[in-house]
Design brief:
single chain, mainly alpha
Length: about 200
């Protein structure tokens, strides 16, 4: 799924060590082995989709050279392993903890899908960074609200009168969007402008 060949050098990103295609392939394969060993085979399509997604992204030169590539690699692969850890564990906690885990999983899903939308707008459609981020945040939340309305229509419920689960999902989508917005902010704050690097302070005459 994930090509171990990484033909395009990425710009160094602070705080996260490089993750080569071979390393991503290894941790993806380990997740698939855990899924197979525990018998939770219904997760395999999600793992396959994540592998294909990362494989395609790593064949795009703009993604390989993107300043936040390693952060997105961590988001995508981290979410896969979080799902594997939650769904494949042989024990259960209290209903409150299980409910919190469900919310966290939904927030992670929102972050993954929002990140993918952001990358498509930014790298494929060539939107400006600001427009791509705003478009991904608005687009994903509208998609989430539309999905809730569609479920109301399919279930014969009054459209627009969200129940507790619908409000929970909408809030999780919003939380995932906030996390998505923090990725470029973190990158901007952790870097100095080029003119500040190696430049001695000006002295007054």
């Amino acid at each position: 799924m994930i090509s171990p060949i990484h033909p395009h050098p990425a710009v160094d990103e602070p705080k996260f060590a490089p993750m080569s295609g071979a390393f991503l392939l290894f941790i993806w394969s380990a997740a698939v082995l855990v899924i197979g060993w525990t018998g939770q085979l219904y997760i395999l399509p999600y793992a396959a989709a994540m592998g294909v997604l990362l494989g395609l992204l790593h064949r795009l030169r703009p993604y390989c050279e993107h300043v936040d590539r390693r952060t997105y690699d961590l988001i995508f692969m981290g979410y896969l392993w979080a799902v594997v850890a939650v769904r494949c564990r042989p024990f259960r906690w209290s209903p409150t903890v299980e409910y919190a885990l469900n919310i966290a999983e939904h927030v992670g899903f929102a972050l993954v899908v929002g990140s993918l939308m952001h990358l498509v707008l930014l790298l494929v459609l060539r939107w400006s960074p600001r427009s791509a981020l705003i478009g991904a945040v608005i687009g994903f939340n509208l998609l989430g609200i539309g999905n809730e309305l569609f479920q109301d229509w399919m279930g014969g419920d009054p459209i627009g009168l969200f129940d507790t689960d619908a409000w929970k999902d909408t809030a999780a989508n919003a939380a995932g969007s906030v996390l998505l917005s923090l990725v470029p902010i973190r990158s901007a704050l952790s870097r100095k402008p080029p003119h500040d690097v190696g430049q001695a302070p000006e002295s007054n005459p």
